[in-house]
Amino acid sequence: METIGKRIASLAIWGAAAVLAACGGGSSERTSGAMPGPQAALVSEGAVLGAPPARATKVPLAAGTLTATQLLDWAELSYPQYFAAAGQPNQFQSPYTFRYYPDTQNYLGVSTATPDDVAIYVYGPVSGGAILRIGALSAYECAVLPQNCGVPGAPTIGAATAGNASASIAFTAPASGGGSAISRYDATCISGFALHSTGTAASSPITVSSMNNGSLYSCTVTATNSFGTGAASAAVTVTPSASTGGGTGTSTTSGVACAINASVFNATINLTATVAMSCSGTQRTMTGNGLPDHAPGTFPNANNPNTIAAQTVNFSASLTPTITYTSGTAVAHVTGYANNSVKFDPATAESYNNAGVWSI
Q: Average pLDDT over the chain, rounded to whole?
């Protein structure tokens, strides 16, 4: 710091001499009562120019981002009590770019002596006669050039394509990326008050998963950079569906009928129908006696000699069923069970016409 101090002192004397010579003489004595002096320290971050705004990342500025001239212009406009009169020309003495303000007899300069630490210095009555390092030039970028320190604008929303328990959300990047490169995009899809799904990607489109088939979602997209997350885009709606998943989706039934425990006396057959169903892990389990809890047909009859009687039903299935066939009518296996544990058996010619009517 002693070497830097001597250089700044030399800079100050040299600058004062130049000003005096240009003015035809005069006294170089500085007054100390023009403004209160900061702490008597060689390094005082944020003194005189105020504490710099917080930055999302503390990294050296890229070449050409914030210049010494921009900093000096900003300082004299923001702190005229220290740096007057405004409009003083830049002066140069390697490695410094500086200005001398004769009305307040202060110097403000930017040193490039250390390439990775371009620093701001002040010298004169404002610093109590000390040569003061205020801070790195990069720390003041957000104060001088606030437009370089903003969050991204809102993306432009595109189409939403439904999938099986998912959706693909397309968008266009915002017109303004803010003060740094956009690092990610986030899609948020909301259905009512309870269903909330998100997805993240580096570019369009974004895949949002863990959605509920058949539920209408409203989806928006935001962009994020090192300074934060910008405003959300306009919304687009989408309704996920198992039929759009190509038979490879992972639609879950984990929230459907997972707590059934019933015992119903059926007066038609003078028997009690029982069933219990639960979900655990990846499986749905059903136990029951296979008796209907409604009035059935007459058994035995001319085409069926059997009498309705209790059965032992122990059935399990995946909570994430997949499409096995998309065409054809032949079924050579048990298709499933009703919620009362009655089996759907292809051998009995049972059918459903997709309009709420069973033929059993």
A: 75
